[in-house]
Protein backbone atom coordinates (compact mmCIF):
# COMPACT_ATOMS: atom_id res chain seq x y z
CA UNK A 1 0.00 0.00 0.00
CA UNK A 2 1.42 3.39 -1.00
CA UNK A 3 1.16 6.14 1.60
CA UNK A 4 0.98 9.81 0.78
CA UNK A 5 4.01 11.84 1.75
CA UNK A 6 3.82 14.38 4.54
CA UNK A 7 4.01 17.24 2.09
CA UNK A 8 1.22 15.78 -0.06
CA UNK A 9 -1.01 15.50 2.99
CA UNK A 10 -0.14 19.02 4.12
CA UNK A 11 -0.97 20.48 0.71
CA UNK A 12 -4.42 18.86 0.82
CA UNK A 13 -5.20 20.46 4.20
CA UNK A 14 -8.43 22.43 4.48
CA UNK A 15 -6.94 25.31 6.41
CA UNK A 16 -9.10 27.91 8.12
CA UNK A 17 -8.19 31.60 8.04
CA UNK A 18 -5.94 32.24 11.03
CA UNK A 19 -8.51 34.69 12.41
CA UNK A 20 -10.90 31.75 12.91
CA UNK A 21 -8.25 29.81 14.80
CA UNK A 22 -7.68 32.85 17.00
CA UNK A 23 -11.42 33.15 17.61
CA UNK A 24 -11.45 29.60 19.03
CA UNK A 25 -9.14 30.89 21.75
CA UNK A 26 -10.92 34.19 22.27
CA UNK A 27 -8.25 36.20 20.44
CA UNK A 28 -9.86 39.08 18.57
CA UNK A 29 -8.80 40.48 15.21
CA UNK A 30 -7.17 43.46 16.87
CA UNK A 31 -4.88 41.15 18.88
CA UNK A 32 -3.61 39.09 15.94
CA UNK A 33 -0.76 40.27 13.77
CA UNK A 34 -1.29 38.26 10.55
CA UNK A 35 1.56 36.95 8.41
CA UNK A 36 -0.43 36.00 5.34
CA UNK A 37 -3.68 34.03 5.64
CA UNK A 38 -2.65 31.08 7.79
CA UNK A 39 -0.24 32.31 10.45
CA UNK A 40 -0.16 35.20 12.87
CA UNK A 41 1.54 36.53 15.96
CA UNK A 42 -0.37 37.08 19.18
CA UNK A 43 0.08 40.62 20.49
CA UNK A 44 1.94 41.34 23.73
CA UNK A 45 -0.99 43.48 24.95
CA UNK A 46 -3.39 40.54 24.64
CA UNK A 47 -1.00 38.24 26.48
CA UNK A 48 -0.63 40.74 29.33
CA UNK A 49 -4.42 40.87 29.75
CA UNK A 50 -4.58 37.10 30.39
CA UNK A 51 -2.37 37.19 33.50
CA UNK A 52 -5.17 36.68 36.05
CA UNK A 53 -6.75 33.70 34.29
CA UNK A 54 -6.23 30.21 35.74
CA UNK A 55 -3.84 27.83 34.00
CA UNK A 56 -4.86 24.68 32.18
CA UNK A 57 -3.05 21.37 32.60
CA UNK A 58 0.43 21.02 31.07
CA UNK A 59 1.24 17.74 29.32
CA UNK A 60 4.82 17.01 28.26
CA UNK A 61 5.65 14.70 25.36
CA UNK A 62 9.16 13.27 25.38
CA UNK A 63 10.74 10.13 23.90
CA UNK A 64 13.35 7.41 24.00
CA UNK A 65 16.77 8.20 22.55
CA UNK A 66 16.34 8.82 18.80
CA UNK A 67 17.33 6.14 16.31
CA UNK A 68 17.49 6.09 12.49
CA UNK A 69 14.23 4.09 12.66
CA UNK A 70 12.34 7.19 13.79
CA UNK A 71 10.22 7.88 16.87
CA UNK A 72 7.74 10.62 15.92
CA UNK A 73 7.74 12.81 19.02
CA UNK A 74 6.40 15.94 17.32
CA UNK A 75 3.90 13.84 15.38
CA UNK A 76 2.63 12.41 18.67
CA UNK A 77 2.51 15.87 20.27
CA UNK A 78 0.35 17.18 17.45
CA UNK A 79 -1.74 14.01 17.34
CA UNK A 80 -2.39 14.15 21.08
CA UNK A 81 -3.53 17.76 20.83
CA UNK A 82 -5.96 16.80 18.08
CA UNK A 83 -7.02 13.72 20.05
CA UNK A 84 -7.88 15.78 23.14
CA UNK A 85 -10.00 18.13 21.04
CA UNK A 86 -11.74 15.19 19.38
CA UNK A 87 -12.93 13.86 22.76
CA UNK A 88 -14.38 17.22 23.68
CA UNK A 89 -11.48 18.85 25.51
CA UNK A 90 -10.20 22.36 24.80
CA UNK A 91 -6.55 21.87 23.95
CA UNK A 92 -3.66 23.41 22.05
CA UNK A 93 -0.15 22.28 21.19
CA UNK A 94 3.09 24.17 21.75
CA UNK A 95 6.12 23.16 19.69
CA UNK A 96 9.41 24.67 18.58
CA UNK A 97 10.25 26.35 15.31
CA UNK A 98 12.52 24.52 12.86
CA UNK A 99 16.12 25.45 12.24
CA UNK A 100 17.20 25.87 8.62
CA UNK A 101 20.51 24.09 9.14
CA UNK A 102 19.11 20.64 9.90
CA UNK A 103 16.40 21.01 7.24
CA UNK A 104 19.09 21.30 4.58
CA UNK A 105 21.35 18.82 6.36
CA UNK A 106 19.79 15.55 7.41
CA UNK A 107 17.18 15.98 10.17
CA UNK A 108 14.29 17.10 8.00
CA UNK A 109 11.20 18.99 9.05
CA UNK A 110 9.79 19.72 12.47
CA UNK A 111 6.03 20.00 11.98
CA UNK A 112 4.86 16.45 12.68
CA UNK A 113 3.96 13.92 10.03
CA UNK A 114 1.21 11.97 8.31
CA UNK A 115 -2.22 13.09 9.51
CA UNK A 116 -0.80 14.69 12.66
CA UNK A 117 0.85 17.80 11.32
CA UNK A 118 0.96 21.52 11.88
CA UNK A 119 0.49 23.71 8.80
CA UNK A 120 1.69 25.63 6.82
CA UNK A 121 4.44 23.02 6.91
CA UNK A 122 6.76 24.35 4.21
CA UNK A 123 6.78 27.89 5.58
CA UNK A 124 7.29 26.68 9.15
CA UNK A 125 10.41 24.79 8.08
CA UNK A 126 11.85 27.69 6.11
CA UNK A 127 11.62 31.39 7.05
CA UNK A 128 8.24 31.24 8.86
CA UNK A 129 7.67 34.65 10.53
CA UNK A 130 11.36 35.60 10.60
CA UNK A 131 11.99 34.92 14.29
CA UNK A 132 15.28 33.10 13.73
CA UNK A 133 16.52 35.84 11.42
CA UNK A 134 15.76 38.41 14.13
CA UNK A 135 17.61 36.36 16.72
CA UNK A 136 20.58 35.96 14.38
CA UNK A 137 20.64 39.71 13.72
CA UNK A 138 20.40 40.65 17.39
CA UNK A 139 23.15 38.21 18.32
CA UNK A 140 25.49 39.44 15.58
CA UNK A 141 24.77 43.09 16.39
CA UNK A 142 26.30 42.39 19.79
CA UNK A 143 29.27 40.70 18.10
CA UNK A 144 29.81 43.73 15.89
CA UNK A 145 29.59 46.10 18.86
CA UNK A 146 32.26 44.15 20.75
CA UNK A 147 34.79 44.48 17.94
CA UNK A 148 33.76 48.06 17.30
CA UNK A 149 34.34 48.95 20.96
CA UNK A 150 37.81 47.42 20.84
CA UNK A 151 38.58 49.26 17.60
CA UNK A 152 37.63 52.68 19.02
CA UNK A 153 39.92 52.63 22.03
CA UNK A 154 38.59 49.78 24.20
CA UNK A 155 37.59 51.90 27.20
CA UNK A 156 36.21 48.81 28.95
CA UNK A 157 39.68 47.21 28.72
CA UNK A 158 38.40 44.07 27.03
CA UNK A 159 41.11 41.42 26.72
CA UNK A 160 40.76 40.34 23.09
CA UNK A 161 42.08 36.90 24.10
CA UNK A 162 39.06 36.53 26.37
CA UNK A 163 36.15 37.45 24.12
CA UNK A 164 33.68 34.61 24.71
CA UNK A 165 30.84 35.80 22.46
CA UNK A 166 30.88 34.01 19.09
CA UNK A 167 28.84 34.91 16.04
CA UNK A 168 25.93 32.75 14.85
CA UNK A 169 24.40 31.55 11.60
CA UNK A 170 21.24 29.46 11.09
CA UNK A 171 23.03 26.95 8.90
CA UNK A 172 25.24 23.89 9.38
CA UNK A 173 28.73 25.10 8.39
CA UNK A 174 31.69 23.35 10.00
CA UNK A 175 34.17 25.69 8.26
CA UNK A 176 33.07 28.51 10.58
CA UNK A 177 33.59 26.72 13.89
CA UNK A 178 37.02 28.27 14.43
CA UNK A 179 38.10 31.32 12.47
CA UNK A 180 40.28 34.43 12.70
CA UNK A 181 38.57 37.81 12.30
CA UNK A 182 39.76 41.33 11.45
CA UNK A 183 42.50 40.36 9.02
CA UNK A 184 43.53 42.83 6.36
CA UNK A 185 45.24 45.64 8.20
CA UNK A 186 44.67 48.42 10.71
CA UNK A 187 41.40 49.60 9.20
CA UNK A 188 39.75 46.25 9.95
CA UNK A 189 40.53 46.14 13.65
CA UNK A 190 42.58 43.78 15.79
CA UNK A 191 42.89 40.17 14.57
CA UNK A 192 41.65 37.59 17.04
CA UNK A 193 40.54 33.99 17.15
CA UNK A 194 36.74 33.65 16.94
CA UNK A 195 34.07 31.32 15.60
CA UNK A 196 30.41 30.68 14.83
CA UNK A 197 27.69 28.67 16.55
CA UNK A 198 24.40 27.72 14.95
CA UNK A 199 21.61 30.20 15.78
CA UNK A 200 19.66 27.68 17.85
CA UNK A 201 22.67 27.46 20.20
CA UNK A 202 22.71 31.23 20.73
CA UNK A 203 22.16 32.53 24.23
CA UNK A 204 19.84 35.08 22.63
CA UNK A 205 17.62 32.19 21.51
CA UNK A 206 17.62 30.77 25.03
CA UNK A 207 16.86 34.19 26.52
CA UNK A 208 13.93 34.81 24.17
CA UNK A 209 12.52 31.38 25.04
CA UNK A 210 12.81 31.94 28.80
CA UNK A 211 11.65 35.58 28.99
CA UNK A 212 8.15 36.57 30.13
CA UNK A 213 7.91 39.90 28.31
CA UNK A 214 9.99 42.60 26.62
CA UNK A 215 11.14 44.11 29.92
CA UNK A 216 12.33 40.73 31.13
CA UNK A 217 13.94 40.13 27.74
CA UNK A 218 15.99 43.35 27.89
CA UNK A 219 17.11 42.68 31.46
CA UNK A 220 18.31 39.21 30.50
CA UNK A 221 20.06 40.46 27.37
CA UNK A 222 21.87 43.03 29.49
CA UNK A 223 23.28 40.29 31.72
CA UNK A 224 24.98 38.41 28.86
CA UNK A 225 28.71 38.12 29.53
CA UNK A 226 30.55 38.77 26.28
CA UNK A 227 34.18 39.03 27.38
CA UNK A 228 36.54 39.52 30.29
CA UNK A 229 38.97 42.32 31.06
CA UNK A 230 42.69 41.88 31.54
CA UNK A 231 42.09 41.46 35.28
CA UNK A 232 39.38 38.82 34.60
CA UNK A 233 36.33 40.97 35.34
CA UNK A 234 33.23 40.19 33.21
CA UNK A 235 32.06 42.59 30.51
CA UNK A 236 28.33 42.45 29.81
CA UNK A 237 26.02 43.33 26.97
CA UNK A 238 24.69 46.20 29.08
CA UNK A 239 28.24 47.54 29.52
CA UNK A 240 28.33 47.89 25.73
CA UNK A 241 24.88 49.56 25.74
CA UNK A 242 23.64 46.90 23.30
CA UNK A 243 20.62 45.58 25.21
CA UNK A 244 18.20 48.27 24.02
CA UNK A 245 18.93 47.90 20.32
CA UNK A 246 18.86 44.10 20.56
CA UNK A 247 15.43 44.29 22.21
CA UNK A 248 14.21 46.47 19.33
CA UNK A 249 15.33 43.80 16.85
CA UNK A 250 13.54 41.13 18.90
CA UNK A 251 10.30 43.06 19.55
CA UNK A 252 8.22 41.16 17.00
CA UNK A 253 10.05 37.86 17.47
CA UNK A 254 9.04 37.90 21.13
CA UNK A 255 5.36 37.52 20.18
CA UNK A 256 4.24 33.86 19.87
CA UNK A 257 3.24 32.46 16.49
CA UNK A 258 -0.23 30.95 16.08
CA UNK A 259 -0.92 28.37 13.36
CA UNK A 260 -3.14 25.28 13.12
CA UNK A 261 -3.10 21.51 12.91
CA UNK A 262 -4.52 19.58 9.98
CA UNK A 263 -7.71 19.27 12.04
CA UNK A 264 -7.87 23.06 12.52
CA UNK A 265 -6.89 23.07 16.17
CA UNK A 266 -4.66 25.84 17.54
CA UNK A 267 -0.90 25.39 17.63
CA UNK A 268 1.68 27.79 19.07
CA UNK A 269 5.03 27.44 17.31
CA UNK A 270 7.63 29.68 18.92
CA UNK A 271 11.34 29.54 19.67
CA UNK A 272 13.70 26.71 18.90
CA UNK A 273 16.75 26.05 21.09
CA UNK A 274 18.40 22.73 20.23
CA UNK A 275 17.98 20.07 22.89
CA UNK A 276 21.48 18.61 22.63
CA UNK A 277 23.30 21.95 22.84
CA UNK A 278 20.65 24.16 24.49
CA UNK A 279 17.53 23.57 26.59
CA UNK A 280 15.30 22.23 23.81
CA UNK A 281 11.90 23.73 24.64
CA UNK A 282 9.53 26.17 22.98
CA UNK A 283 9.15 29.62 24.53
CA UNK A 284 7.84 30.25 28.04
CA UNK A 285 5.61 33.04 26.74
CA UNK A 286 3.94 30.71 24.21
CA UNK A 287 3.42 27.97 26.80
CA UNK A 288 2.05 30.36 29.42
CA UNK A 289 -0.26 32.01 26.89
CA UNK A 290 -1.60 28.65 25.75
CA UNK A 291 -2.19 27.59 29.37
CA UNK A 292 -4.32 30.69 29.97
CA UNK A 293 -6.48 29.95 26.91
CA UNK A 294 -6.93 26.15 27.11
CA UNK A 295 -7.83 23.40 29.55
CA UNK A 296 -4.93 21.28 28.29
CA UNK A 297 -1.66 22.23 26.61
CA UNK A 298 0.50 19.57 24.96
CA UNK A 299 4.14 20.52 24.54
CA UNK A 300 7.32 18.65 23.67
CA UNK A 301 10.94 18.62 24.75
CA UNK A 302 13.62 17.83 22.22
CA UNK A 303 15.24 14.44 21.57
CA UNK A 304 15.17 11.77 24.30
CA UNK A 305 14.02 12.33 27.86
CA UNK A 306 17.63 12.33 29.08
CA UNK A 307 18.09 15.66 27.30
CA UNK A 308 14.79 17.35 26.51
CA UNK A 309 12.66 16.27 29.47
CA UNK A 310 15.46 16.73 32.00
CA UNK A 311 16.07 20.28 30.80
CA UNK A 312 12.35 21.02 30.45
CA UNK A 313 11.90 20.28 34.12
CA UNK A 314 15.18 21.49 35.59
CA UNK A 315 15.48 24.65 33.47
CA UNK A 316 12.17 25.68 31.90
CA UNK A 317 9.85 24.64 34.73
CA UNK A 318 12.29 25.99 37.32
CA UNK A 319 12.56 29.37 35.61
CA UNK A 320 8.92 29.74 34.61
CA UNK A 321 7.18 28.25 37.62
CA UNK A 322 5.56 25.50 35.54
CA UNK A 323 4.80 21.87 36.43
CA UNK A 324 3.63 19.08 34.11
CA UNK A 325 0.50 17.18 35.13
CA UNK A 326 1.31 14.15 32.95
CA UNK A 327 4.15 12.96 30.71
CA UNK A 328 4.02 10.88 27.53
CA UNK A 329 7.11 8.92 26.45
CA UNK A 330 7.07 8.13 22.72
CA UNK A 331 8.56 4.86 21.49
CA UNK A 332 8.29 2.72 18.38
CA UNK A 333 8.62 -1.01 17.85
CA UNK A 334 11.20 -0.28 15.15
CA UNK A 335 13.34 1.71 17.57
CA UNK A 336 13.08 -1.03 20.19
CA UNK A 337 14.38 -3.52 17.63
CA UNK A 338 17.27 -1.22 16.70
CA UNK A 339 18.16 -0.87 20.38
CA UNK A 340 17.99 -4.66 20.49
CA UNK A 341 20.69 -4.96 17.82
CA UNK A 342 18.68 -5.16 14.58
CA UNK A 343 20.06 -3.25 11.60
CA UNK A 344 17.85 -0.69 9.88
CA UNK A 345 17.57 -2.75 6.68
CA UNK A 346 16.27 -5.74 8.70
CA UNK A 347 13.53 -3.94 10.65
CA UNK A 348 10.69 -5.23 8.46
CA UNK A 349 11.05 -8.79 9.75
CA UNK A 350 9.26 -9.72 12.97
CA UNK A 351 11.70 -10.06 15.87
CA UNK A 352 10.00 -10.23 19.25
CA UNK A 353 13.21 -11.02 21.09
CA UNK A 354 14.89 -7.91 19.69
CA UNK A 355 11.96 -5.84 20.94
CA UNK A 356 12.43 -7.31 24.41
CA UNK A 357 16.20 -6.76 24.25
CA UNK A 358 15.74 -3.15 23.15
CA UNK A 359 13.21 -2.16 25.78
CA UNK A 360 15.94 -1.36 28.31
CA UNK A 361 16.32 2.11 26.82
CA UNK A 362 12.60 2.76 27.27
CA UNK A 363 12.71 1.39 30.81
CA UNK A 364 15.50 3.76 31.76
CA UNK A 365 13.46 6.74 30.58
CA UNK A 366 10.36 5.55 32.47
CA UNK A 367 12.40 5.24 35.65
CA UNK A 368 13.96 8.68 35.17
CA UNK A 369 10.62 10.38 34.58
CA UNK A 370 9.16 8.79 37.70
CA UNK A 371 12.02 10.39 39.62
CA UNK A 372 10.48 13.77 38.86
CA UNK A 373 7.24 12.73 40.55
CA UNK A 374 5.08 12.86 37.42
CA UNK A 375 3.16 9.83 36.07
CA UNK A 376 4.30 8.62 32.65
CA UNK A 377 2.38 6.89 29.88
CA UNK A 378 4.14 5.29 26.92
CA UNK A 379 2.77 6.06 23.45
CA UNK A 380 3.70 3.33 20.98
CA UNK A 381 3.77 5.25 17.72
CA UNK A 382 2.46 2.67 15.25
CA UNK A 383 4.21 1.72 12.01
CA UNK A 384 2.47 -0.41 9.38
CA UNK A 385 4.95 -3.28 9.76
CA UNK A 386 4.52 -3.70 13.52
CA UNK A 387 3.18 -7.13 14.48
CA UNK A 388 0.77 -7.96 17.29
CA UNK A 389 3.40 -10.08 19.03
CA UNK A 390 5.95 -7.25 18.95
CA UNK A 391 3.42 -4.73 20.28
CA UNK A 392 2.41 -7.15 23.04
CA UNK A 393 6.05 -7.62 24.04
CA UNK A 394 6.52 -3.88 24.39
CA UNK A 395 3.29 -3.44 26.34
CA UNK A 396 4.17 -6.29 28.69
CA UNK A 397 7.56 -4.75 29.37
CA UNK A 398 6.09 -1.33 30.15
CA UNK A 399 3.57 -2.95 32.50
CA UNK A 400 6.44 -4.68 34.30
CA UNK A 401 7.94 -1.23 34.87
CA UNK A 402 4.82 -0.03 36.64
CA UNK A 403 3.57 2.08 33.76
CA UNK A 404 1.21 1.58 30.82
CA UNK A 405 1.64 1.62 27.04
CA UNK A 406 -1.02 2.62 24.53
CA UNK A 407 -0.84 1.92 20.80
CA UNK A 408 -1.36 5.12 18.78
CA UNK A 409 -2.23 5.33 15.07
CA UNK A 410 -2.41 9.11 14.69
CA UNK A 411 0.09 9.19 11.81
CA UNK A 412 -2.31 7.22 9.61
CA UNK A 413 -5.67 8.10 11.17
CA UNK A 414 -5.29 11.52 12.79
CA UNK A 415 -7.14 12.18 16.05
CA UNK A 416 -9.25 9.02 15.69
CA UNK A 417 -6.12 6.91 16.09
CA UNK A 418 -5.01 8.48 19.38
CA UNK A 419 -8.24 8.92 21.32
CA UNK A 420 -7.39 6.16 23.80
CA UNK A 421 -4.16 7.94 24.76
CA UNK A 422 -5.93 11.32 24.88
CA UNK A 423 -8.59 9.94 27.24
CA UNK A 424 -6.03 8.36 29.56
CA UNK A 425 -3.75 11.42 29.61
CA UNK A 426 -6.70 13.70 30.45
CA UNK A 427 -7.67 11.36 33.30
CA UNK A 428 -4.16 11.44 34.73
CA UNK A 429 -3.85 15.23 34.35
CA UNK A 430 -7.23 15.78 36.02
CA UNK A 431 -6.48 13.37 38.87
CA UNK A 432 -3.85 15.66 40.39
CA UNK A 433 -1.59 12.72 41.27
CA UNK A 434 1.54 14.44 39.94
CA UNK A 435 3.92 15.58 42.68
CA UNK A 436 6.46 17.42 40.56
CA UNK A 437 9.97 17.84 41.97
CA UNK A 438 13.28 19.03 40.58
CA UNK A 439 16.31 16.78 40.25
CA UNK A 440 18.48 19.10 42.36
CA UNK A 441 18.06 22.24 44.51
CA UNK A 442 19.21 25.70 43.43
CA UNK A 443 21.89 25.97 46.11
CA UNK A 444 23.72 22.75 45.20
CA UNK A 445 27.29 23.45 43.94
CA UNK A 446 27.59 23.53 40.14
CA UNK A 447 29.90 20.52 39.90
CA UNK A 448 27.60 18.54 42.16
CA UNK A 449 24.64 19.40 39.89
CA UNK A 450 26.56 18.10 36.88
CA UNK A 451 27.41 14.88 38.74
CA UNK A 452 23.78 14.48 39.83
CA UNK A 453 22.54 14.63 36.22
CA UNK A 454 25.32 12.33 35.00
CA UNK A 455 24.76 9.70 37.68
CA UNK A 456 20.98 9.80 38.15
CA UNK A 457 19.89 10.42 34.54
CA UNK A 458 22.77 8.98 32.46
CA UNK A 459 23.82 6.31 35.02
CA UNK A 460 27.46 7.30 34.61
CA UNK A 461 30.04 6.26 37.18
CA UNK A 462 31.96 9.52 37.05
CA UNK A 463 32.33 12.96 35.50
CA UNK A 464 35.74 13.73 34.02
CA UNK A 465 36.65 17.41 34.40
CA UNK A 466 40.17 18.81 34.57
CA UNK A 467 41.34 21.41 37.08
CA UNK A 468 40.75 24.30 34.67
CA UNK A 469 37.06 23.44 34.36
CA UNK A 470 36.60 22.86 38.09
CA UNK A 471 38.34 26.16 38.85
CA UNK A 472 36.10 27.96 36.37
CA UNK A 473 32.97 26.56 38.02
CA UNK A 474 34.29 27.58 41.44
CA UNK A 475 35.00 31.09 40.17
CA UNK A 476 31.46 31.45 38.83
CA UNK A 477 30.10 30.35 42.19
CA UNK A 478 32.16 33.07 43.88
CA UNK A 479 30.71 35.58 41.42
CA UNK A 480 27.16 34.68 42.48
CA UNK A 481 26.14 32.10 39.84
CA UNK A 482 25.93 29.05 42.11
CA UNK A 483 22.10 28.97 41.93
CA UNK A 484 22.01 28.47 38.15
CA UNK A 485 20.75 25.17 36.68
CA UNK A 486 22.88 23.06 34.35
CA UNK A 487 22.34 22.70 30.59
CA UNK A 488 24.17 19.57 29.43
CA UNK A 489 25.36 19.59 25.82
CA UNK A 490 25.85 16.01 24.68
CA UNK A 491 24.86 13.56 21.98
CA UNK A 492 21.15 12.80 21.72
CA UNK A 493 21.68 9.22 20.56
CA UNK A 494 22.78 7.68 23.84
CA UNK A 495 22.56 8.05 27.60
CA UNK A 496 26.34 8.24 27.42
CA UNK A 497 28.50 10.67 25.46
CA UNK A 498 29.21 7.93 22.89
CA UNK A 499 26.59 8.12 20.14
CA UNK A 500 27.09 4.44 19.29
CA UNK A 501 26.35 3.17 22.80
CA UNK A 502 22.65 2.32 22.57
CA UNK A 503 20.28 0.76 25.07
CA UNK A 504 20.76 1.55 28.76
CA UNK A 505 24.52 1.67 29.34
CA UNK A 506 26.08 1.83 32.79
CA UNK A 507 29.63 2.15 34.03
CA UNK A 508 30.55 4.89 31.56
CA UNK A 509 32.18 8.28 32.14
CA UNK A 510 31.03 11.77 31.13
CA UNK A 511 33.99 13.85 29.91
CA UNK A 512 33.53 17.64 30.02
CA UNK A 513 35.27 19.51 27.23
CA UNK A 514 34.32 23.04 28.28
CA UNK A 515 31.80 25.03 30.31
CA UNK A 516 30.05 28.22 29.26
CA UNK A 517 28.25 30.72 31.47
CA UNK A 518 24.91 31.90 30.04
CA UNK A 519 24.27 34.58 32.64
CA UNK A 520 21.42 36.14 30.68
CA UNK A 521 19.54 32.92 30.01
CA UNK A 522 20.33 31.82 33.53
CA UNK A 523 22.14 28.50 33.17
CA UNK A 524 25.61 26.96 32.81
CA UNK A 525 26.25 25.05 29.57
CA UNK A 526 28.38 21.94 30.00
CA UNK A 527 29.82 20.71 26.70
CA UNK A 528 30.48 16.96 26.81
CA UNK A 529 32.35 14.60 24.53
CA UNK A 530 32.43 15.41 20.84
CA UNK A 531 29.24 17.50 20.70
CA UNK A 532 29.46 20.50 18.36
CA UNK A 533 27.64 23.81 18.80
CA UNK A 534 28.05 24.38 15.06
CA UNK A 535 26.99 21.18 13.25
CA UNK A 536 28.37 20.16 9.87
CA UNK A 537 26.55 18.88 6.81
CA UNK A 538 26.56 15.14 5.97
CA UNK A 539 28.30 13.70 2.92
CA UNK A 540 25.03 13.90 0.98
CA UNK A 541 23.02 16.79 2.46
CA UNK A 542 19.25 16.97 2.04
CA UNK A 543 19.69 20.22 0.12
CA UNK A 544 20.85 18.24 -2.93
CA UNK A 545 17.28 17.03 -3.50
CA UNK A 546 15.43 20.24 -2.61
CA UNK A 547 14.14 22.27 -5.55
CA UNK A 548 11.15 24.03 -7.09
CA UNK A 549 9.21 21.96 -9.60
CA UNK A 550 7.57 23.23 -12.79
CA UNK A 551 4.49 24.26 -10.81
CA UNK A 552 6.57 26.36 -8.43
CA UNK A 553 6.08 23.92 -5.55
CA UNK A 554 8.87 22.80 -3.24
CA UNK A 555 10.11 19.24 -3.65
CA UNK A 556 12.56 17.30 -1.49
CA UNK A 557 12.11 19.26 1.73
CA UNK A 558 10.44 16.24 3.39
Structure, briefly:
The protein is an alpha/beta fold and 558 residues long.
Describe this structure in words.
The protein is of the alpha/beta class and 558 residues long. 35% of the residues lie in helices and 19% in strands. Strands 1, 2, 3, 4, 5, 6, 14, 15, 16, 17, 18 and 19 form a twelve-stranded mixed beta sheet that branches. A four-stranded mixed beta sheet has the order 20-22-23-21. A three-stranded antiparallel beta sheet has the order 7-12-13, with no helix packed on it. The longest helix has 21 residues, at 131-151. It is globular and about 70 Å long. The chain starts with 5 loop residues before the first helix and ends with a strand.
Helix and strand topology:
Elements: H1 6-11, H2 18-24, E1 32-34, E2 40-42, H3 44-49, E3 57-63, H4 73-86, E4 91-95, H5 100-104, E5 112-113, E6 116-119, H6 121-124, H7 131-151, E7 158-163, E8 167-169, E9 179-181, E10 192-194, E11 196-198, H8 203-210, H9 214-222, E12 225-229, E13 234-236, H10 243-250, E14 257-261, E15 266-269, H11 284-293, E16 296-300, H12 308-320, E17 326-331, H13 333-339, H14 352-370, E18 376-381, H15 388-400, E19 404-408, H16 410-413, H17 419-431, H18 446-456, E20 462-464, H19 467-481, E21 486-489, E22 509-518, E23 523-528, E24 547-548, E25 554-555
Parallel strand pairs: 3-16, 3-17, 4-15, 4-16, 8-11, 17-18, 18-19, 20-22, 21-23
Antiparallel strand pairs: 1-2, 2-14, 5-6, 6-14, 7-12, 9-10, 12-13, 14-15, 22-23, 24-25
Helix pairs in contact: 4-17, 7-8, 7-10, 9-10, 13-14, 14-15
Amino acid sequence: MAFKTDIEIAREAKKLPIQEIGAKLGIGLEDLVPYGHDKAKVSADFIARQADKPNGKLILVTAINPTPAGEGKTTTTVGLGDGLNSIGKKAAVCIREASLGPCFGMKGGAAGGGYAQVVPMEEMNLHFTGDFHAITSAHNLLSALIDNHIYWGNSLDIDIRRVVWKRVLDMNDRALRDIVTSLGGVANGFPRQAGFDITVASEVMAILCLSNDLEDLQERLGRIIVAYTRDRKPVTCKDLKADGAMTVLLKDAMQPNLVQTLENNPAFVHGGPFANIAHGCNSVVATKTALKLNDYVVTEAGFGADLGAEKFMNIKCRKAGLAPAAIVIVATIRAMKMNGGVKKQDLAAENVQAVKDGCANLGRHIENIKGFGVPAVVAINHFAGDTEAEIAACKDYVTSQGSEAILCKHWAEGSKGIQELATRVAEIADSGVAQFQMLYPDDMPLMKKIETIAKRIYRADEVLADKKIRDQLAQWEEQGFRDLPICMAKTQYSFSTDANLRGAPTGHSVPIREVRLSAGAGFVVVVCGEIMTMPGLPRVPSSESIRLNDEGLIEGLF
